[in-house]
Amino acid sequence: MSEKEVFVGLGSNLGDSARTLLNAWNHLGKQRGVTLSALSPPFLSSPVDMASNHWFTNAVGQVDTTHSPDQFLNILLDTENHFGRVRNDDQHGFSDRTIDLDLLYFGVVILDNPRLTLPHPRRGDRLFVLAPLAAIAPDFVDPENGRTITELHHHLLHTLASNQSSKQEINQRSWPEDIFKESA
After folding, report:
1. What phi, psi does 137 have (nearest 5°)?
2. From the CA atom positions of the chain, what is the Rg in Å?
3. Which helix (H) or strand (E) holds 135?
4. Residue 178 buriedness (CB in 10 A; 0-12 / 13-18 / 19+)
5. Domains of the chain by residue range
6. Which CATH class is domain 4-183?
7. Would you say 70 and 118 are in contact if contact means Cβ atoms under 8 Å apart?
8. How far apart are CA 36 and CA 28, in angstroms?
9. Residue 97 vs residues 5, 16, 77: alpha-carbon distances, Å
10. What is the DSSP string of 70-110?
């Protein structure tokens, strides 16, 4: 099977979020059939569509994989479990979490089944997805709407500036050097 260009959203708002995200990123790179390609800077972002006092650390990573979308989703879920993600099937809506790994794009695959929707259905209305994605893949073309990530990012910024969407705050940060060196 040929390699696919895949984009993964990484997020955490509990514990040492930056360390957790970098450790999870490196863990992904140790999986058979997965090659790490690029990792965005971290972004500190306000919670969206949930009530919490804990801001998120978010990033987007690009990997190349020989796995199918379903197989790669299993790798992401296993990685979340490995880093302490607890899912409560009785809970509705979003909640605080130690780690969240979202499969944003799997090349140009368009898929919609009960387990997985590609591209990620909320990618275009989340600043914490588009800002880090634009940092590493500004010219990637969304296979559903034909727009580049830069175009999607600018559109969302315009929508937010004109108060046509709920408020989202985001600030680009840097990976702490000591954490980045430790996780390598």
Report:
1. -145, 60
2. 16
3. helix 127-136
4. exposed
5. 4-183
6. alpha beta
7. no
8. 8
9. 27, 11, 14
10. HHHHHHHHHHHHHTT----TT--S----S-EEEEEEETT--
Could you report how far apart the first and last alpha carbons of the chain are, in Å? 28
CA atoms within 13 A on the CB side of 27: 18
Token pair 């965005």 in the structure block, residue: 40
77: its two tokens: 């879920």
Helix (H) / strand (E) containing 152: helix 149-161
Contact at 8 Å (CB) between 181 and 159? no
What does each of the 184 residues of the chain score in pLDDT, given as a tens digit?
A: 467 889 999 999 999 999 999 999 999 999 999 999 999 999 999 888 767 788 999 999 999 999 999 999 999 999 999 998 776 655 555 678 889 999 999 999 999 999 999 999 999 999 999 999 999 999 999 999 999 999 999 999 999 988 866 788 999 999 987 765 555 5
> CB of 133 within 8 A of CB of 149?
yes
Distance from C-alpha of 139 to C-alpha of 132, rounded to nearest angstrom? 13
Backbone φ, ψ for residue 120 (5° rounding): -55, 130
